[in-house]
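Dear colleague,

As promised, here are the two records you asked about, laid out in our usual form so they can be pasted straight into your sheet.

NAME FIELD: protein one
SEQUENCE, THEN STRUCTURE:
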Amino acid sequence: MKKANTLFLTISLLISVTFLFSSCEKEKDSTPTKTKMEGVWVVTEAYDSSGVTIMPKVQNHLIPITAFWLQSDNTVISTAGPMTTYMVYGDTKWTQISSTIDQLFNYANLNFNNGEFFVADGTPDRFALEMKLEGIGGTSTLSSILSLFGIEAQWLKEVVYHKFLNVGVSFNDAGDKMTWVWDDYTTARYNMKDSNGDYVLWYGWPISKFSKARFVLTKKSKSLNDITHEAYQNPPTKLEIVKN
């Protein structure tokens, strides 16, 4: 009888511990996706759909950091001009346009790209990201890039709003690593704005040609200004970028 009681107590204890652990896991997982996403993040890994690194195409020694500041009001401030350009236009003529991109997106003076992100309530694993591409610091304009792709003159705009819907998002257990995935579920919409500020579809580039890719972002405790300033003070070497 004593052994039976001991066994019963042991089983009861195991069930209680399991239940408690499961409850804690559920509580942790109930944090809204949007809340998890807020903060300053730096892209530390980037891969194409085949798993090959594309870090040298989203940053280099001239543009040494790809970072996002995701704010509670859905605002995005970033150094992601090269990354957005790659996502929209892919590898086409990349060698030819890379020097132009370096001129367009120089963040040393903390002039960033703007955008927005949108997440449903709760804990969805998909979100929408809109990135605005334009020239920075008056050195050139987006038209320079568009011209290199042979885009027709009527579509050579100064600003284009690139929106990606159903981008995959996931986190590690600690919540300090976030993964974004552009896959077969992801779609795109590209817009310009009219004189009233209303969206008008931009037909300069096929929405079906965006790059499928995966990005791993690491959360930072410093401000976007600080990490950008530090990156330009100590830019990574080409080898370091490839290793990432």
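NAME FIELD: protein two
SEQUENCE, THEN STRUCTURE:
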Amino acid sequence: MIRQFYTFLFFYCFFLVSQITAQEVIVKKRNVETGEFYSNSRNYKKFKNKSNAKEKYTNCIKYNFLPFFIGEFPMGYEIRINPFITLEAGLGLTTNNHMDQLVFGANNFYSNPNGYLRNTISLSHNATIKIFPEGNSYNNGLYVGIDYKNRPYSKILPQENFSQKATKLFIDIGLIAGYHIRSSDRILIDLYAGISQRYITWDTVSIFQTIDPNTGDLVAEAQINQLEYPTLGVLLGFKIGYLF
């Protein structure tokens, strides 16, 4: 046991010495007239220039690819307040929530065997506050954030004199954890996952056929009952952004 301890101590000391001797000693000099520090080290200048280059952008335009599977196409804008905090907001378009349809496919809101209901485009919006504990907001770094999403999905039931609209609205307020990857000078990749408190307001549709007393034609009518309920939601994102 003692021999193993001394062997370990020997290799540890050898490793420590090699690390110390391998480090470059950087001597910084101060200009008396200007008060600025400078160094003749080539590596130091290279690191400083690279660091400055990574901090010169404060704005980022992003597109999130994962919401495609739930029928949303969101664009976002992020601004760096400081190295520790960024704010992001965005708008998107929604069509049909394909993932939700897998669960509630039997409902008339989705099934609609006679094709009465038609998908329509709605406007979604979102906002996020991100905190980077290590102060590397637009570099490679971890973050935690508070995320808000508002995603309405609407259907239209065309009528002769008017159109009936039914909507299923998802509102998420949740916590996310993510990672920024600075893949190049202007390209930023944003990956995140989280959990939310989700509030759903759903215009459930019951469609039935009646005979128009004036024309004798068979027409479709809809009865809408609104449901409101909370549930848990999962938040996922894969964004690619352009810095400027």
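A couple of things worth noting about protein two: The CA atoms of residues 203 and 226 lie 4 Å apart. The longest strand covers residues 218-243.

Best,
R.
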